[in-house]
Amino acid sequence: MKKCLRLLAFMTLLLQLSACHNTDNEEDIYNALLRLNLLPAEKIYKPLQEKNFRKKAAAVDSVFSHLQKITAFNGTVLYAENERIVYRNAFGWADPVKRQQPLTTDARFELASVSKMFTATAILILQERGLLSVDKDVRTYIPEWPYEGVTLRHLLTHRSGMPRYEHLADARWPDKNKALTNQAMIQLFIQHKPEVYFKPDNGFHYCNTNYALLASVVERVSKQPFYAFMEKNIFRPAGMNNSFIYHLPADSVLSGYRPEGIPGYDQRGRRLVRVPNDYLNGVMGDKGMFSTVTDLFHFDVALKHAVLLSAETLSQAYAPGSPRRRSNKDNYGFGWRIHAESDNAVYHYGWWKGYRSFFLRDLGQNKTLIVLTNKSKAPGSDHLWDIINDKRYPIAPSSANTRVLYHPR
């Protein structure tokens, strides 16, 4: 009898909802549900475990509030779990010396080496389109490159053995008041051909030259400036409306400070000093990207949902690029470091001219922590991994029937 009554109620519900649908009146639908003594969808599908949500946010806030007290942490933070933004906050000032202009979560910071994951993404996009192969020699795309046997894979995984362009430029770039561009960097290598660290694939050596070269490959293959390619093919599709690549025309005279984004500060003893513009800032690919914590979260979600790259390609990006060592050291994939102490975590840190950045992603637990600062002195990464590894207060995914906390722009 009970089953018959339930079936009758369900059929009556369908008929009434159908009638309401014809009138396009949501209030009638809601009232029809109430008359049947059934809960409407928004009463059923609520975000789960809101207490845990608040407790997790409080736990993350306590870490950074404490760090601000003991280390004068100055920057922005975003923590997300199961693609829900649990915590997002800003600490300190755009000018921490004069304590002026309170930071907001929309502040744009230089990402330093966190830029590398975006350069690697650009290379993989071009490979998916059939325009290049990571196993081809660099000279397939930059014929004038003076070193043999270096593939794009070697560059991506820092196994090329290439010398550091910063050391070469410091010794050989004639006018430090003019920007060194990617093409000018290539010309320096052609002209002076410094000795390599080792033959390709004979070791691991983290080197900015690798990713500067990859940016030049993107330009040669796509036939457009690197910054324009990134805007069209990564930033816009991922909803990263506050991100850009800092770029300078060839032989441009440097401004005193970079006018874009939040200024960076070096810690010199007890003093903070604003970092002036630098001729090396003209090189793109290894650094030079400005972004916000929210835009980086959009990138994280875009990767998880195959907006930019297929899942198969991403699995290659997260694969160790070097042979596994007996010592439990982190490995390096395509633009991502691979965390040895986690089953499925990738990350990158950045440090350049008054900026520090941290992008941690535990893919297994679906946790993301992003920290951007405009001071050369930043919290130790152990504090950040403790947040990722904190299994208290698990956060359930938000229901498809509730208001989503993440909105791509």
Strands of the widest sheet, in order across it, are 2-1-14-13-12-11-10
- Contiguous runs where pLDDT drops below 50 for at least 5 residues: 5-24, 400-409
| Total beta-strand segments | 14
Distance, first to last CA = 52 Å
Overview of the molecule:
Among the domains are: 2-44; 109-326, Beta-lactamase (3-Layer(aba) Sandwich). It contains 13 helices and 14 strands. The chain has helices at 2-23, 26-35, 41-44, 50-71, 115-128, 152-156, 165-172, 182-192, 208-222, 226-235, 293-304, 311-317, 381-389; strands at residues 75-81, 84-91, 93-95, 100-102, 109-110, 244-245, 265-268, 271-274, 289-291, 331-332, 337-338, 345-352, 355-362, 367-373. The strands form four sheets. A seven-stranded antiparallel sheet has the order 2-1-14-13-12-11-10, sandwiched between helices. A three-stranded antiparallel sheet has the order 5-9-6. Strands 3-4 form a two-stranded antiparallel sheet. A hairpin with a 4-residue loop joins strand 10 (331-332) and strand 11 (337-338). Helix 1 packs antiparallel against helix 2 (26-35). Mean pLDDT is 88; it is low at 5-24 and 400-409.
